[in-house]
Structure formats: C-alpha cells, structure tokens
Write a structure and sequence with these properties.
By secondary structure, the chain is an alpha/beta fold. Helix content is about 40%, strand content about 20%. The protein is built from 15 helices and 21 strands. Strands 15-16-17-14-13-18-19 form a seven-stranded mixed β-sheet, with helices on both faces. The longest helix is centred in the N-terminal third of the chain and has 23 residues. The protein is globular. The N and C termini lie far apart (about 80 Å).
Amino acid sequence: MSVMESIHVGGKWRAATAGGTREILDPADATTLAVVAEGDAEDTDAAVAAARRAFDSGEWPATPTAERAALLRRVADLLQRDREEIALIESRDTGKTLEEGRVDVDDVTSAFRYFADLVMNESGGRVVDAGSADVHSVVVHEPVGVCAMITPWNYPLLQASWKVAPAVAAGNTFVIKPSEVTPLSTVHLVKLLAEAGLPEGVANIVTGAGDPVGARMAEHPDVDLVSFTGGLASGTKVAQAAAPSVKKVALELGGKNPNVVFADACATEEGFDTAVDQALNAAFIHSGQVCSAGARLIIEDSVKERFVSELVARAGKIRLGRGTEDGVECGPLVSQQQLEKTEGYVASALAEGAKLRCGGERPAPSQVRPAEGYFYLPTVLDDCHRGMRVIREETFGPILTVESFSTEDEAVTLANDTEYGLAGAVFSSDTARARRVAARLRHGTVWINDFHPYLPQAEWGGFGKSGVGRELGPHGLAEYRETKHVYENLRPAPVRWFAG
C-alpha cells in the first residue's frame, strides 16, 4: 500500500521530512485502511512557519468579509458534493455507522454555513459613546493570528470544523493535527479548502502523534492560539506547554454527563418509552465514544427497577457490526487500546461492588461480524456510587452506570458531583421542575426531555475540568479574534498638563 502524502505545508502536499509513516487501521477488523505520513517537530515547525508567513505577509487576514464568507459557503457545497465519500471514510476510520458519518458531514456543512452567515451579518465594529462629539471611539475585532488545532479521534471531521470554520471566517491561518488514529477525513477537508480557493499557507496539516507534533504546536512561540479537544490529561499538558508564551488557549476536555430521569417522566407508556429510548441513545451512540455521552443514568427510586429492566432488555438487542453494513446500530471501539480501557473500567466497577445487568464482555464470534474487530457489548452497571472509578472518570466506551435518588435535591447533588461539567439532561413531565433542575445543573449544555442535539448557533463547552472557552455560536467566533479599541480625537489640541 502506497504512503499517502498527508502533510500539507504552504500549499504543498508531501511526505514526512524524516520519512516516518503510520498504518491507519479499520477498527471493524484490524486491517490496514491507509498508510499516512508520520510527522515530527521539524514538520511542525515548517507548517507553523508557513502559517506565520501567510498571516504576516499574505492576503487572507485582509480579505473582505464577504469573500471569506463566500469561500466558507463553497466549502460547504463541496462537503455536500463529497458527502457519501466522506461519510464512508469517517465510518471506516472511526468504526461509527455510515448513517452517523452522513449526519457528521451534514453537521460540518451547517457549521461552515453558520459562520459564513455570522461574519456577513456583522457591522464594522461597536461604536462606544465617549461622551464627546469630538471623539470617535470604536471597538473592532481582528484575527488572532496563527492557530494551532489539535482534534480527537471520535468525531475527527466534526471537531475539525468547529475550529477551522470560525478560524478561517475570522481571517486567521492555522496548522491542524488530527488524531493519529483517525486522520483521513481531516486530510480530505484540507483538500476541499484548497479546492475552494483558500490561499496557500492559510491551511496546513501535520499528521502524527501528540508527542512530538501536538506538543510542539502548543509550545511554539509563533503560534498565537492553541485549540485542543481531547482528554483531561493531554489537555493539561497542552495548557502547561502554552503557558510560557502566554498564548490564547481553548480546551474542550470531555465530561462525565448525568442523565436525570424523574418518575413523572415515566407516568405514561409513551413517556416511559421515550425516556428509555433516550437513555439508550445517550449512552450507546458511537459505542459511547462521545464527550457528551449520558454515561450516568440517575433515576428516581420508584421507577428504577422497571426502567433499568427495560433498558437492559433493549440494550441486549443492539446490533453490533461493521458500520457500513445495513442494519448495524453500533460499531466497534476505535482501537485495541480503547477496548482494553473499557474492559478495565468494567472490571474495576465489579470489584468495587457494581452489579452487572448486561454486557460486560466482548461479543462471541457468533454475535458479531467481523469477529476480529474491537467490539464490546453495550454494558449496564447497576448499584453504582460516587466512590467508583467508573463513576468519576470519563470511560469513553459503551458503559452505562446507574445511580438512584429519592428527592429533587438529591438528584441535583448527584448530577453535580463530578469534576467535569460538559453536558447533562433532565427528563420530567413537570415543566417547572425540569427548568428548575436545569438551572441548578453546573454543566455547559443541559437538555430537557432530550439528549445529544446541538446547534451551530449555540455555544458548546463546559464548566470545571471540562475545559475553558467555547466553540460554536458567537463566542466560538470570538475565540479566534482579538478585540481592539480605536479612540480617535477628531479635534486634537494641546492638553496643557505640564506647565512647561
């Protein structure tokens, strides 16, 4: 298999300087999908230098807003043109179903169109009343400069778009490092940016490992902003590496997300069916490999046993397999490492007293095709408590834990008893209660009687150790800008502060 030239620097595709390569595996059967270039610090320095030149001397930062918006719309159109191809790439690279891949492409398209519209609808700045007709005072927004972007393996194209679209809309240049496990759709996106007419040097990509590529990006003195999405441990290292140069830092570090279900949500058969269905979606979409996964079911005592029994029955019927096959509802985990991590969390939970209600193991060869993939059965762990590692830590696998409560205050206390604060949900037929609880939850996104939807026009990010900064929405654009106050004296005259 030939090596893909997956490093793009200054408008040119090339191999790694040191000749390094990496096999990209299909998680459904552990076979090789592609061989890509494995960049290092030298490749990273070259990419940052190209982005620096393009920002300091190139045309993009001064390109009129209308032209930037038009380019973003062209990218959106190209994404839809290549929708099936990209969805297939994403499905085979990450293991998710083909339909999930299609949804991802549509969501990426929406992000590009949203930021195009956002910058087009802005004025030339915010006029500030200085209290004098002789002063013109305005606050303007300028691109921050060279942006380093480090993206995760679970939603490679989607997470790239949340960074690339606002960065380009604001007039920045960038270097992006996709996860070394799932780089293929990001490579395709960079090709579409070039096809849409983005000037050379504005978009650069280096494929390779977090250390050295991501580490060098975070510490590089010519990088003005680093945006990272991934795990807490890696995000902490990024922040530490960025600190000496005092660059802007945006971090989205995952979550341990509660799904609070009150008994009144289950008072009717329709309500019960909806709450169970949503709990399944919250926990097991993309095999639980979602930063906002509703991995903690917090259920009211009076309906707990009926609810969990039905949940377990349905979880046992989830069809596993290769994401591109018809009828498959859940694909494999992304890697052998993630599979072993999932097994470790389940083992620790059982050792700490959890009750296994379903799953808890790899499927038998007769249960899934192909049998060589990194598959793990959807797992429900009952009788869980805050002292368990599976409750405290982000598992990123098909594991749902069950906790119970008897009062509203107890539900809120449980839901907020986490060092993370990315997302959460409340299910209740009592609108006042649902909104009251939602207001008390310390999470960046709270759903009421739903789970997982997001809007490109609404900010995304978390409280606590879920990170700093926001993506999407107006604040998502603001992350990629510097704010400048321009104060103009229209009738300059001596101040006469000093007598001489």
